[in-house]
Amino acid sequence: MTTAPTPVPAPAAADPSGGPGAPGTAPASPTAQPSVRRRRPRGGAWLATVPLLAFFLIGFGLPAVAIVTGAFTVSSDAETGAGSFTTANLTDSVQGAYWTALLSSVKLSALTALIGTVLGVPIAQAVLTSRFRLLREAVLTASGVLANFGGLPLAFAFVATLGNAGEITKMFHLTDHGWSLYSFTGLTVTYLYFLVPLMVLTITPALEGLRVQWREAAQNNRATALQYWRHVALPILFPSLLGGFVLLFGSAFAAYATAAAMVGATVPLISRQIADALSGNVLVGQGNLALALSLDMIIVAVLVMAVYLPLQRRSARWLS
Fold it and tell me: Is there a contact between 126 and 228 (Cβ–Cβ < 8 Å)?
């Protein structure tokens, strides 16, 4: 007796939609697509920022509070009204010799920052486009050293070379041509010695962020090198350039030791006025006036930063 073969069921036609419930489709394995779990930060992760916050509060917060409080307080050595609120300190800080010193500091800082920016950008670009790696490393290393070279050593170096009896002054007879190191012009040249290297260090990362595709696209559209820098590179770099200008402005605005050792009171500067008020060289008991002058410097710095920060966020979208 023969046994009929067992019929084999034909496979069901696959659903063209390819859905998981289509006939003939095997159910998806639960391990086919492993779920990605996002790690949530631990509750105590913020504790790592405590040392930084503590340093910020101690190093910046407490001095800022002391400056603001002292600027609106009568000097403690006054015969009457000790510790009372007053606006006389701020009023005096923007009058007479103090106002002249503030304007002179702003003028000197803005001029040196502008010249340092104009000179530093071409130097940084020339170093980046150079085929000699050793030259680039040497310039950047020297810039890092010279940007932090200031104070009494810098003043002594310039007095020995460009002072009235300096070697370069005697060699080229600069005094006969009206040169004087102990003037506004001489102080400007001295500040550029450390501001130009500082600008080279500041603008180099931004120049490295310029993409080669942008230059190639400009060349494909028959743009010259000048047109590329005018219409493409400089608009993108403008916030970074402004940021470097702000950094140079702040460095020159807060500089004290170099100017004090070299020009003294010949060039009126706000930093010198603060030192004189604290030490009592002119009048005794002017500590709170010095705090008011310091508050003026902070206000100037805040106004400059208020212009820089919005532009920096705009530039970050292009260079990122």
Answer: no
